[in-house]
């Protein structure tokens, strides 16, 4: 039953065991929600697991640091792997029935290099895809594999990785995968910084400056809501502001929220979203802000819910 407390999730390591496990739920016609993660869980993931619990009878979380979505110079080797702490968090939260923790061979039986890949269209090479070539093909490939193994009815993803969300939705629609994609709001620290596993790469000084990314997005969003339609100038001003504070921005862009297309100037503000990615020291931070009334309401609700929330160290 959606919402029931589950004290200790069952941990499964092989695709065969995972398939067997969900088969019983399927036979008894229970709905299944999947929350894919790369571990190093924090409040953002836990909020997605709570959402999953409200959406389905059974919840499966996956913990897999997916090699195919990291570039050669990225942090795959050093990505924080904190399985014991993650399992404790999930047990305490009581929202997840099973945790699938496969190794590389379970997900990529022929090896990651020889794997069949999902190749996503142009959007995957824009925004974050421009500075992370192949990243979204890797994300789509692993999500496709996880969907094949867990066969959920509902896939839960965070709004924080907005481009990922739109790309996965596109894959699901284009490949005709029978899963409903549901998204949960970004969890923030009290100063506005979006909670992320990569915040741990920030020094104390960088952590103090990091909320400026969110503040820059707020300013762009507010200007658009006040009728400023010169997106180019707003983007440039925000990027300059970030640069002045020591960030190295990859992009600040206003896009259409529905599909991340470039706006043609005819969209009303509530169909737009502002997205940014910037490096600060060793961390690459991403964030976004939807301009719709619902997003604004979500933001306020999230701010209220997050009061007192803190990122994992
Ligand atoms: O958002 C993430 O943590 C990852 O990109 C995902 C969706 C788990 C795929 O590896």
Short description:
The chain is 39% helix and 17% strand. It is an alpha/beta fold and 313 residues long.
What does this protein structure show overall?
The structure is a single chain. The chain is of the alpha/beta class and 313 residues long. The protein has two domains: 10-184, Rossmann fold, CATH 3.40.50; 197-297, Pantoate-beta-alanine ligase, C-terminal domain (Pantoate--beta-alanine Ligase, Chain: A,domain 2), CATH 3.30.1300. The protein has helices at 15-27, 43-55, 83-93, 104-107, 128-131, 135-150, 162-174, 204-209, 212-225, 231-244, 293-306; strands at 10-12, 32-37, 58-63, 98-100, 154-158, 180-184, 248-256, 272-280, 283-290. α6 crosses α7 (162-174). Mean pLDDT is 93; it is low at 303-313. The chain binds pantoate. Residues 36-38, 66, 69, 139, 142-143, 161, 164 line the site of pantoate.
Which descriptor suits the 3D outline? globular
CATH superfamily of the largest domain: HUPs
Quickly give the structural class.
alpha/beta
How confident is the prediction overall: mean pLDDT? 93
Annotation, overall tally of beta strands: 9
How many domains? The number is 2
Number of helical segments with 4 or more residues: 11
CATH class of the largest domain: Alpha Beta
Low-confidence stretches: 303-313
* Order of helical and strand elements: EHEHEHEHHHEHEHHHEEEH
Computed Rg = 19 Å
Give the spatial strand order of the biggest sheet.
1-4-3-2-5-6
Residue share in helices?
25-40%
Q: Termini, distance in Å?
A: 34 Å
CATH topology heading of the largest domain: Rossmann fold
Characterize the main sheet: 6 strands, parallel
Instruction: Give the amount of beta strand, in percent.
Output: 15-25%
């Amino acid at each position: 039953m959606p919402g029931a407390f589950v004290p200790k999730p069952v941990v499964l390591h092989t695709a065969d065991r995972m398939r067997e496990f969900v088969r019983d739920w399927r036979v008894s016609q229970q709905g299944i929600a999947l929350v894919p993660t790369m571990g190093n869980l924090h409040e953002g993931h836990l909020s997605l697991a709570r959402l999953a619990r409200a959406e389905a009878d059974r919840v499966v979380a996956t913990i897999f640091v997916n090699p195919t979505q990291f570039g050669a110079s990225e942090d795959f080797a050093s990505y924080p792997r904190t399985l014991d702490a993650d399992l404790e968090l999930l047990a305490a939260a009581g929202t997840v029935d099973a945790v699938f923790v496969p190794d590389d061979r379970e997900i990529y039986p022929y090896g990651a290099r020889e794997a069949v890949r999902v190749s996503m269209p142009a959007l995957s090479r824009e925004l974050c895809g421009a500075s992370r070539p192949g990243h979204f093909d890797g994300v789509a490939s692993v999500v496709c594999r996880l969907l094949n193994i867990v066969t959920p009815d509902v896939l839960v993803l965070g709004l924080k990785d907005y481009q990922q969300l739109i790309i996965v939705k596109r894959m699901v629609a284009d490949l005709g995968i029978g899963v409903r994609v549901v998204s949960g709001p970004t969890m923030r620290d009290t100063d506005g910084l979006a909670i992320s596993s990569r915040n741990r790469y920030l020094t104390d000084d960088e952590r103090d400056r990091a909320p400026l990314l969110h503040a820059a997005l707020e300013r762009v969003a507010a200007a658009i809501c006040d009728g400023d339609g010169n997106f180019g100038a707003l983007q440039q001003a925000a990027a300059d502001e970030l640069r002045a504070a020591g960030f190295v921005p990859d992009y600040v862009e206003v896009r259409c929220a529905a599909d991340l297309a470039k706006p043609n100037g005819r969209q009303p503000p509530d169909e737009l979203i502002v997205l940014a990615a910037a490096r600060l020291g060793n961390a690459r931070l991403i964030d976004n802000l939807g301009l719709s009334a619902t997003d604004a309401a979500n933001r306020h609700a999230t701010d209220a819910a997050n009061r007192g929330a803190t990122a994992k160290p």
